[in-house]
ribonuclease H (Oryzias latipes), 663 residues
Amino acid sequence: MTERTGQNPDPADPEFLHHTVAQQRTFLELHSNAISRMSSIQEDLNSRINGISRILQEVTEQNSNPTFTTSQLSSGNITTSAMTPEDFRLQPEPFRGDVEACGGFLLQCQLLFQRAPSKALQWAQAFLASNPITPSFDHFIEEFRLVFDQPRKQEEATRKLLALRQRNRSLSEHVIDFRILAVQAGWSDPALRGVFYQTLNESIKDHLCTQPEANSFEDLVAAALRSDIRLRERNHDRISKTRPEPSRRTSDEPIQIGHSKLSAEERLRRRNEGACFYCGELGHQVIQCSLRSNYRAPPLGDRPRGEISTMINDFLFVPVKLCHLSKVLDLQALIDSGVEQSLIDHSIVNSLSLPTERLTSPVKAAGLGGQHLSLITHRTKPILLVTSGNHRETIQFFITRTPQTPVVLGFTWLKLHNPQLDWSRHSITSWSDFCMGNCLQSALPSVSTPNVYESETIDLSNIPECYHDLKLVFSKSKAASLPPHRPYDCAINLLDGAPLPKGRLFNLSGPEKAAMEQYIQDALSLGHIRPSSSPAGAGFFFVEKKDKSLRPCIDYRELNQITIKDKYSLPLISSVFDSIQEARIFSKLDLRNAYHLVRMKEGDEWKTAFNTPVGHYEYLVMPFVCSTLCVMHQAWQMPPPMTCRPGRPPTSPISKTATAFIR
């Protein structure tokens, strides 16, 4: 047998085998214990995941159905048996990513963290996907503020604090707003004192100057509140002392003409005794009072300028003309929707000698408070009223005493005509469709009759005596009036389907604008034009004459291009000269207003419409620059075989002898 030497153990040694087996058993036990612990940890994790899943499911069900069951309330350790809607409002409102609501939401979350839908939920899902499932609350707050809170809240509060002013608010409200911003700005006490003083009203600053200087911000706020209270009390006392006491009169003093009205006691006494409210005497009423009838109010220009005159400037007055027989009176009429009927002062009735009629039943005029003002017993018969230059109507006025506003157009007038009013410019901008068809006609009142023309003083000094029996032909007022419709009224026939002219506005200089306004006003007053709603339009401008005056021109070129031309024959110049070769006596009869002596055919007026910076108008008479008007005027004034100068308004009768000429 060979003996071995060395350090290697003998594998066949029983002791070595026993030791090795013991070691392996120890390792197996350690692995078994590790596996057991890992299994336990895994089960715990699975249990926690299941619990989280159940919680998420419950939260999802709560969001979809806000009604909690009784079991859910008991599991949440809520002992109350009933939950009212007011209890739910104590919980945080859902946060939807509003930056301004971030601070308030976090404050509620610290009390009860429940839910966060919309953008906040999306952020939470993204955050939890990349972070541990159970972060600390401080970590959550930090991340939440990073996403949703204002990055520069302090700077924004500082800016608002510097811009804050008290203005018309009470000081207590101002202090609340200031304190909120002061907390957010985080300023020191001296800085808050300086800024708060600057935000106060000047009256409070002045009052604080009389008090000791405040040592802190709170002292300054208290002093400012005391000053505000004292100033309010002082203003209240001042207003109470300056209120006018009601006027008192002795019971036997009659009313003072032109002075304040009677006191309530005096009016009651006179009503009970049946005395006159005007003079205080017995035996008659105010409407029969002779003193009141003989009294005439002074002209408006001579009256003292007091509160009433100032108030009148704030009302809407429009220029009107009252026309009766041959009399025309220019007035300013008050438009008042608070007056039921249209009124006129009795002095206007007397000055125009307007016919009147008694009302079937007298009308009692009352003020806004129901107090009796007057008793209206008469009204005018229908008279002609011209408003704003060319609006004509017949109207009846109730007669009363309104010397400061002699004509009042009331609610019935507004309801009938329904005008558009420009209250800032104190003018009427447009009229209703009813007025377009019934009232907007000739602006010259039709009060002129042949007797009126005959009463007109006509200068015949340069007129041959043989024409004196035809003096009405030389009347300027008759030539300027709106002519009647005749069989040969001017018609404008347009091509079928042709586009209507639109025209354009021309730039006018200062003198041209003044001349344009004067021309429009004159033409409206003569009735030659009227406001238009025509779809057509032509430009309006001026050309300078040789004498440097301005001639109005209307650009009718587009209208002439679509007009069917009238082929009425005009005499040849050569034939006219041949007819006057043997003539020895000539007389030129110049037609006043020329083309304006012929009316536009009814229904064709809209085709002559033109645009100006002050309005849209159309002609009622023939204008001067339309292509067919020359031959129309020629056909009207000189039908064959009479002799004329072609294409010109004046006519020239001729004769060989004076006797034949006069005939």
